[in-house]
Amino acid sequence: MENTAHKLLIIVGSVREGRFGPVVGAWVAGQARAHGGFEVDVVDLADVDLPLALPAASPKHAGADYPRPAGMAALTSALGDADAFVIVTPEYNHSYPASLKAAVDWHFTQWTAKPVAFVSYGGAAGGRHAVLHLENVLTELHAVTVRDGLSFPNCYTAWQDGRPLDPEAPRYARTLLDQLFWWTNTLRAGREAAPYPG
Ligand SMILES: Cc1cc2nc3c(=O)[nH]c(=O)nc-3n(C[C@H](O)[C@H](O)[C@H](O)COP(=O)(O)O)c2cc1C
């Protein structure tokens, strides 16, 4: 394995006006930087051109020629460069936002044989249903989902000054990041040893 840092991309999935997502994303990025195992980058889907209408071909087979909008180029290259992902997702109607589905569907190989962890938030459900759906979808792209996620129910009252009120939250974040780090090491070594058969 090359002796370079593992690149972690944190994806802020909501794009709604007045959204809470960037608050959660900034806190997660702070926890990831404090962990020390990753070179951390954050992408906010609100900054990305994410049309719902896809080209005719599948991104799985089109490779670098897939005709994406210019305003998606930074996302595509960040996904491709990343060794690991944390998806920060709210819950909308017992699932995850359409912005995240579009970001997933415009890509394919960028996710393959890489680990994905989840930090979710929302009302009573805390993003639990959103994460279940994302796990299902990302498995189709040959990504590996990390079991221990972070979930923040009732996010508007459970957070203050940019951080969760639960004093245990940083410890839970550490567990998530330790598991993600293990998978990042393992899958990166695997990708470098042999092409993934899929
Ligand atoms: C369209 C919509 C649907 C929602 N559906 C749910 C839901 O099914 N379960 C839940 O726990 N919270 C639900 N919520 C609450 C959101 O998860 C909460 O408002 C969260 O802050 C949304 O993330 P955002 O602020 O980053 O957009 C919903 C909010 C919206 C706007």
Automatic annotation (TrEMBL):
EC category: oxidoreductase
Record-listed E.C. numbers: 1.-.-.-
InterPro entries found in the cross-reference section: Flavoprotein-like_sf (IPR029039), FMN_Rdtase-like_dom (IPR005025), NAD(P)H-dep_reductase (IPR050712)
Keywords, comma-separated and alphabetical: Oxidoreductase
GO molecular function per UniProt: oxidoreductase activity
Source species, domain of life: Bacteria
SUPFAM superfamilies: Flavoproteins
Domain NADPH-dependent FMN reductase-like: start-end pairs: 7-153
Residue ranges the record marks as coiled coil: none
Protein name in the entry: NADPH-dependent FMN reductase
UniProt organism field: Streptomyces nogalater
